[in-house]
Structures
1.
Amino acid sequence: MSEEQLSVHFNKHHAAYIKNANELMAKMDKARKTNKSLDMKSTTKSLTFNMAGHILHSLFWENMMPKDKAKHKPTGRLAKLIDRDFGSFERFKKDFSEAALSIEGSGWAALAYDWQCDKLVILQIEKHNNNIVPSLYILLVLDMWEHAFYIDYKNEKKKFVDGWWDIVCWSEVETRLKEM
């Protein structure tokens, strides 16, 4: 990913989710202090969207590293779980890529760990609407919104996904798994 792509993504898109979430929380605080009514349905929906955008983007940045420092496969417990739950790393990579490429519109592909079942699962997150399954802990995300790739890849999403595999920071994913 080019510096321009990353800069626009981080400084414009991710920053907007933070700004919007902060403004919405301030609006809610002000309404409470002045005893004013709010349209809670639209306010909380917007707050959830923007907060999830911030959280998912934060994971996205942490899940990547410079190509010359990246390892191309996970190790340790994560590698063992991937082999157990998907049969091989290659099969996991294929399934995750297909999940990312089949997102309708804007969204995210994610690898999560279900601590109740002791199982890795691949998810699609529409927009930022992470319909929470309480036992799932997100380990790895790939942003499939156009703003994540359009400068470098135009409409060639597959090239973006293929290139992303070269910069995944598997040590960070392993660290998140250990936090469970």
2.
Amino acid sequence: MRHFSISIILLLFLIACGNKATDLSGNTPIKIDDFKNIFKPITLPTTISDTNFTSFIDTFKIERKALAQFIPDSIIAHIINIKNKRKAIIHPLLKIIKENEYYLLLTIEYQNKHDIVVLVFNKKNKYLDYKMITEFEKYANHSTKFIKTITINREPSFLIDENSLSTQGNVFYEKKGWAFSDGNFRLIYYDSNKQPEKKIIINPIEAAPTKNIYSANYGADAKNFIALRDNGAPNKYQFFIHFENDDNNCSGELKGLLQFKNNTATYSEKGDACIVQFTIIQNEITIKENGNCGNHRGVTCDFNNKFDRIKKSKAKK
């Protein structure tokens, strides 16, 4: 009888250990299978809207240090708003298991909104890519003038559908479709009847030094230009591109770092599918998009362009 009682106690102890909650503080190592298990599996297709998405959110909180055990810290810096990182709360949302990879959906909660993020891993648990799918504003819920939904299809693809009603009674819509393919997320669908917003274009590197040989402004007009500025060495530059294509109401912006070898340089960053090649011959710069830069521009245009160097205006005496 005594041996039987001891066996029962040991069994209960083992069960309790097996059900021990995963430590998501990041202070202890986490097994990837334990991490995956905090995400709820979902049957596809499914639709999440700005009126029901809170029902998908789990009470678990994932600390940044815990997330950094599975994805690069540089990617976390993109996912979490740097200005509000102390106020950001990470929650697990959903899990999608496919034949060659699996998807983990997170929500990053701030004071006024939730950002919806998708992480992709292969079957060997190697991180592949991420995508900030959309955001849900907390105080836009249940509004008759604005409706936003995410439809996750079986592939999976992620279709974001926004509909709004103006004060004049006009209905505006915007639809974007994203899917993971060939190693990164791609924009696979876009449709909208929104009018592009008129905004002031600010060059964020305008005041940086221009001592290097290629440092200057190149452009066609105030809406289509590239700025090159010094970045610590004669062959290293920072750049900012902005363009607007009036023919199809499409625009793009890109900011980054370049290292020129002779007269050519290539923009490429880990975690970003966008690759852009720059070539300067005399006073003309040629920009050629070699990767998928859909995260930085509209779907109906690209970064392929040529700009002439803009001469500095002489200061009046």
3.
Amino acid sequence: MAVVGRIARTHGNRGQVIVDIATDFPEQRFRAGGQLFVARSGRVEPLTLTSVRFHRDRPVIGIAGVDTMNAAEALRGLELRIPIEQLTPLPAGAYYHHDLVGCAVQTRSGETVGTVRAIERAGGAARLVVAGKRGEILIPLAAEICTTIDSAAKRIVIDPPDGLLDLNEP
């Protein structure tokens, strides 16, 4: 399943929650009557959205069966997911985060940099969070730096600018 958001906190006293978005298609993923899934206590549970409105670009959602602040608080921090089959096809050169996590990163000369642990967004720009032998390395997800991305082979080749890989040197 693919993550499309995370429940940030409760909103009001009627069981609504505010969601931190993790999708480029929030209006498609967060709509009344839609179904999302959470993992709790080792089980995957469906959640049906009863209401959705956007406030400051974040969805405020109501969930069937969650009608008190305490019930909503129990959902705080849970990731909202959808089955991968429901993902919108992306154009060439665009990738879902889960496609890049786990990719081996190496330089054009073949030097192993590490493995993509996560994707981070800051001000609209995305960065690969790479677990390297010298610690965490942040690599801008830009075509000039990430010259080859083969998500099927779980491999990314980079052409880093001088000093990029040395930023986290001890």
